[in-house]
Design a protein that fits this description.
The protein is an alpha+beta fold. Helix content is 21%, strand content 22%. Strands 1, 2, 3, 4, 5 and 6 form a six-stranded antiparallel sheet that branches. β5 and β6 form a beta hairpin. The chain is elongated. The N and C termini lie far apart (126 Å).
Length: 143
């Protein structure tokens, strides 16, 4: 701005904001690399917590965005806002059947689903075969 005050007729090339590519976007993505189990476990823990309602928004262009409500932490005063979850992790959990989507709420630009942890059907305990009982022949009583 100051450079243009003294030179009214000269055009000055002002610096512009350069957008940097994210490091993950700059590096080639490795295909088929499994996600870390720690991150997946954290995402599943957040979704399974009934105190944090989790949603996925599917936009008209096909983009999906998973988010949850982060309650206010009284110790730090942080929270009270929506926080995003990693889309790739959530899509993997959905493909594996670990999370389910609820009824859709349709808007003109997006469809919103409630995300819940899949309820597991308790498996019946494996039946242990009882040892065979040998039948002892009855003794006849002589009267």
């Amino acid at each position: 701005m100051l450079a243009t005050v003294d030179r009214s007729n000269a055009l000055v090339d002002l610096p512009t904001v350069r957008r940097r590519r994210a490091r993950a976007a700059a590096a080639p993505a490795a295909a088929g690399v499994p996600s870390s189990s720690g991150t997946t476990a954290d995402v599943l823990r957040v979704i399974a917590d009934p105190r944090t309602p989790t949603y996925v928004m599917v936009f008209a262009n096909g983009r999906r965005r998973y988010s949850y409500w982060r309650p206010i932490d009284p110790a730090t005063g942080m929270g009270g806002c929506y926080a995003a979850l990693p889309t790739a992790e959530c899509d993997e959990l959905q493909a594996a059947g670990r999370i389910t989507l609820g009824e859709p709420v349709v808007d003109p630009n997006r469809t919103t689903y409630r995300v819940r942890a899949a309820t597991r059907v308790p498996q019946a305990p494996a039946r242990v075969a009882a040892p065979e009982r040998r039948r002892v022949p009855e003794r006849r009583r002589v009267a």
